[in-house]
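Internal tracking record. Fields below are filled automatically when a chain is submitted to the structure queue. Please do not edit lines marked as system-generated. If the sequence contains nonstandard residues, flag them in the REMARKS field before resubmitting.
Queue: standard
Priority: normal
Entity type: single polypeptide chain
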Amino acid sequence: MVTANRRTGEKGQRTPHNLDSYQEKGGVKGAAYCSCGAVFRDKRWYSEDGGSVRQEGHELVCPACKRIADRNPAGIVSLSGDFFEAHEEEIHNLINNTAQGAVKKNPLGRVIDICKEKDCITITTTDVKLAQKIGREVYKSHGGQLNYIWSHAEAPVRVTWTR
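SYSTEM-GENERATED OUTPUT FOLLOWS
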């Protein structure tokens, strides 16, 4: 009996292990580094380690830099409402602190852009978890309504907060 796969929706097809098209397909042999300071070692990206990999590894563009160059976010956060307009500077500081803390833990999670429109702000990120974290931190600090909109495909997660 052949059933439809939950992720691909196609009958008889296996679920791909990695749905992110920005990750290297065959893996990376040895150590590598990106011009942004991210270092790839042991199948994982790390923050800069002082330059030792630059001597032994090869240069590679990290998935975050690829997303930034393509202007293709993995997460979109929208913040709006009367409360946001009254506390905009405080919320901006919270967003910046959250993003800086996330980069230390995961160098691939970065803010691409922050766009101010007349009654809301839109933040695009290179990582879905960073978008979730920004929305969760604003919600924990200020309450309001927080919604996540996930797609079954490789499209970005949309996080909306209003108050």
